[in-house]
Amino acid sequence: MATLKSLPYRWRTAGALRQAALRQAALLPAALLLAALLAALLTPAPAAAASGRLLALCYHDVVPDPAGVTDATTITVDALVQQFSWLDAHGYTPISLDTWAAAGRGGPLPDKPVLLTFDDGYASFHEHVLPLLELFDFPAVLAPVTSWIETPADRPVPYGDALVPRNRFMTWAQIREARDSGLVEIATHSHDLHRGIPGNPWGNAQPAAVTRAYRAADGGYETEPAYRARIRADLAESVAVLERRLGSRPRTMVWPYGAYEAAAAAEAHRLGLEFGMTLEDLPNAPLQRNVHRRLIGADMDLDDFVRTVRGLYAPAPLRAAHVDLDYVYDADPQQQSRNLDRLLDRIKALGINHVFLQAFADPDGDGVADALYFPNRHLPLRADLFNRVAWQLRTRSGVRVFAWMPVLAFRLPDDGRNAALAVQSLDGSHEARYHRLSPFDPDALEIITGIYEDLGRAAHFSGVLFHDDAFLTDQEDAAPAARAFYRRHWPELVGPDPLAGADKVADEVADEVAFARAKTRHLIDVTETLADVLRRYEPGLRTARNLYARPVLEPASEAWFAQNLRLFIDHYDYAALMAMPHLEGAPAPRRWLTRLLEAVRARPDGLARVVFELQTRDWNTGRPIPDDELAAKLDLLLDGGARHLAWYPDDFVTGHPGLSMLRSRVSLATHPAVLE
């Protein structure tokens, strides 16, 4: 007897859709037959998928009527049938977690594996999704929130900011039926972490799984032990409920909102939750226990779905306003809120996708952090503001926030300790352009690492922009700790008494170029260590680092900066190149900028990885750069192939640069083609 899978696809699709229509009480309109057939038969075949790579898709509620699509994560039954049909027609093979786990032990994977996951435990899974999984013989993972399923039938379920009827979610009997189909594995989506909790003094609700709850009663935050105990208790309760109701323990934690961090993941692992699932546009490879999923939403038509599955789309170009939090801060809370509203409105109106947001306080404008905008153990707290602004930019303006942070330029409250840990020039001075703590001093690095750890714990953000303070001149670092470091780690590059009595560092080294490169690599190592600290709290963290223009235009000047474009491209997601002719004193700014663009274009992946950051104020004169001049520079860069653009500062108080000029050149909404 022929099975559904053995029939020719053209017949199989039509038969499948007819059966689906019958099983779903004629919920699928007749017009869907043609749409699904067109999707299956006319879409060009994809290129072969990379061997061993897994595409994981995340679904939520599935409704029969487009009028029932009430949020961004709900799709229609029609859309799901089209997507399943396309996958089946083009050789994609949905796999089970068993297959993925076996691949991690060296087992085989099909050429184009796909993992289908359904979050929250909506009743629509039983009514609409399960019949389709059975029809196509597709395995899937179902992740209910156990507290929602445990809610009695006569009580509403707290869902976000609303209460919804209990019948929107599955019953335990329906979940058992899904499991018993042999196609569906049950995971946990937590017991009660699928909600927001107060994350700052302003009461912004933030994901419970990754937020240290703000305590209004005493103005403090949840301690680290208390946070871990709360996560442990919730996950243990969810595992226990699933074991009691289903007779077996889950092995997968599907993190609410895709948000997790190292401490929470460790608690899940201790409970035997082998896999974690997130929401990140990243590839998956065998042996990987965190499965990155792509969200399938209401705004995704079949063309969008095909591009997502095939991975044909290019990431959107980065367009970033570089914002001083000092402009938002005000001692008057009401004025501060007005400042914030003005910033949020401007960023949303610009139609950009990133903000580089200052996380340190620098009221005197010397580039050194005198205080911080997040609770920490080493510097004064000017205001607990970074968390609030970063969250509001993400949720109200729809952008990704990079925390803009110094690497070394921190001014400690203790003047004596500040001087003892500082970078030193050969003349004994501490302030060649910036006061900086020595990247070779273990005590200084411990302080800096602690600051970054506090930042990671204090707020939610997508990336970090390392400030332009991470440089070393050819006269630096002559601090005692640095000299000891050179002797211990680079003995082949320095003499027995490096730097002593020399006019230049280079005079005491065997190879000036090698010594400069060693310092360049050391600063990269320092920033990568700091990024790893942040990744304990933001596992998907992306990195950018400010790069002076001179090492790009004159590579030999690496000796004066300890910066190198090729190494920046190799080690960071973005090199944030300071394309600032006024800062450099260039007599012919347009010609200078053209040379800079050409130097980047000559590098492999240069245009793909370099953010050209323009200055909007001439710091030599203190005046704003006119809009027509900025427009000419932006046009030059765009016409020359630059993809990633930023500008500093974005002065939302005075509205400079002009909104209309910027939006016409950098808005992703204005130029949707850049998203293709």
Structure write-up:
With 676 residues, the protein is α/β, with parallel strands linked by helices. It folds into two domains: 8-310, TIM Barrel; 323-474 and 513-656, Alpha-Beta Barrel (TIM Barrel). It is globular, with a radius of gyration of 28 Å. The chain is built from 25 helices and 30 strands. Strands 1, 4, 5, 6, 9, 14, 15 and 16 form an eight-stranded parallel β-sheet that branches. Helix content is 39%, strand content 16%. Helix 8 packs across helix 9 (262-270), helix 15 packs parallel to helix 17 (512-535) and helix 24 (627-639) packs parallel to helix 25. Helix 5 (123-136) links the parallel strand 5 (113-120) and strand 6 (140-144).
Tell me the radius of gyration: 28 Å
> Can you count the helices?
25
Task: Output mean pLDDT.
Answer: 89
Main sheet summary? 8 strands, parallel
Query: How would you name the CATH homologous superfamily of the largest domain?
Result: Glycoside hydrolase/deacetylase
Contiguous low-pLDDT stretches (5 residues minimum) are 1-51, 500-509, 671-676
Structural class: alpha/beta
How much helix is in the residues? Answer: 25-40%
SSE inventory with pairings:
Elements (H helix, E strand, L loop, with lengths): L8 H15 L7 H12 L12 E5 L2 E2 L11 E2 H13 L3 E2 L2 H8 L8 E8 L2 H14 L3 E5 L1 H5 L6 E3 L2 E3 L7 H9 L3 E3 L9 E3 L6 E3 L6 E2 L4 E2 L2 H23 L5 E3 L7 H9 L4 E5 L10 E6 L6 H9 L8 E5 L1 H4 L4 H18 L3 E5 L1 E2 L9 E2 L13 H11 L3 E6 L9 H6 L10 E2 L1 E2 L6 H17 L4 E4 L13 H10 L22 H24 L6 E6 L2 H4 L4 H4 L3 H7 L2 E5 L2 H4 L4 H13 L4 H4 E6 L1 E2 L4 E2 L2 H13 L4 E5 L10 H8 L10
Parallel strand pairs: 1-5, 1-16, 2-3, 4-5, 5-6, 6-9, 14-15, 15-16, 17-18, 17-30, 18-21, 21-24, 24-25, 25-26, 26-27, 27-30
Antiparallel strand pairs: 7-8, 10-11, 12-13, 19-20, 22-23, 28-29
Helix pairs in contact: 1-2, 1-5, 2-3, 3-5, 8-9, 12-13, 15-17, 24-25
